[in-house]
User: What shape does this take?
Amino acid sequence: MVKLTEDYLTATEKFTAANITTPTFSQAKMADITAKSPVWVHFGGGNLFRCFHAKIAQNLLNSGAMKSGVIVAETYDDDVIEQIYHPFQNRMLQVVMKQDGSYDQTLIASVATSLYYNRENPAGWQKLRAVFEQPSLQMVTMSITEKGYQLADSQGKLTEAAQHDLTHDPDEAITNMGAIARLLLARFQAGAFPIAMVSTDNFSENGLRFQQGFLSIAEGWNANKIVSSEFIDYLKDATRVSFPWSMIDRITLNPAENVAKKLITAGFEDTKIVHTVKHTNIAPFGNTEETHYLVIEDAFPNGRPPLEEAGVILTDRETVNDADQMKVTACLNPLHTALAIFGSLLGYQSIAAEMENPMLVKLIKRLGYQEDLPVVKDPKIIDPKAFIDQLITKRLPNKNIPDTPQRIASDTSQKIPVRYGVTLHHYLDEGRDLNQLVSRHAADFCWLVSLLDGH
Assistant: This one.
């Protein structure tokens, strides 16, 4: 049996025996370089980061294109750091679940250090501030979910936490936006060094939402004479602080018990899944799909690592938005949601199992190819038809991914306006006949209703 904490540079044969690919760089040396010259900070140490962003960093470290690693700052759950990162020397096992039933397993060691960034943790609170004061820091990435950006309630009114942050000293910040704005204030005071603040959370126009959150806090500080107007100017100057937009796509589920069992059989020891008090499900390993996309607006005022060498697509803002619209409103999410709704009603427990039902496959093919493709804007960097082809033939039928319609169907009422409304607007904008669109689905929906009547 092999453990994550074993020296992968000297015990290579043990990892090889367990079919685990190991890094080619020294994590200890990388951590030393990072401490002296930090380049990349990531907020949100959950499963998506561990299976996606951390692997991007590792590819660059392996090739020598990057020398400094990632500093992980967890803002929500201190147990993630204390139970998963620190005990395993900030390492994890990435498990890519392939369609043929096999796994690709890689030991990830690209995280230099990890900390809980919250005023409840004074050590982490001050340590990350010191990182942001370093001129070498080039970029911050985020995967804290859309809720992490929240400053207002459902009625559009500022939450109590947001109101607190607007009127109190930055060192007393409660919200994520306030706590991170505190770090940018420290960077401004240290020399107004440039930096890119990159949201990679899965919602449209994420960079704009990120920027608006910061400005709301900072302008509140300015109104209450806590910061100068020069700090506001710094945040609004894209040559010093940028907020690139991004599109991210990779199904990364909670660690699965069946994956843990297969890893043990293969000779890997660290497979205990942790369920924290704050309801985070995380493990020394992470399981994810093979297909992935990350598109980022190329706006980095302090330079950046060569992310494109690790498969990231760098482009302009309009193209990022087109790619996001293609995915969210046409070629992926509407199909996924349709499967989830009918799969839940029909009693399916697996997305892959639904793909064995010819009528459900016919439904999503019609949605994708006949309804969405005619009006979707081609982002050029990803072919929309090829994207749907890959989704229907490779991603959704993958039995190796334990994804459920119930997971996808959650909050459906909030998803429908975006996932279907945008396509309907495109039809209206182009003067197309919606009656033809409705009639195409009439037979399929009649069949589905009759099938539901039998359940």
In short: The mean pLDDT is 93. Residues 434-453 form the longest helix (20 residues). The two ends are 47 Å apart (CA to CA).
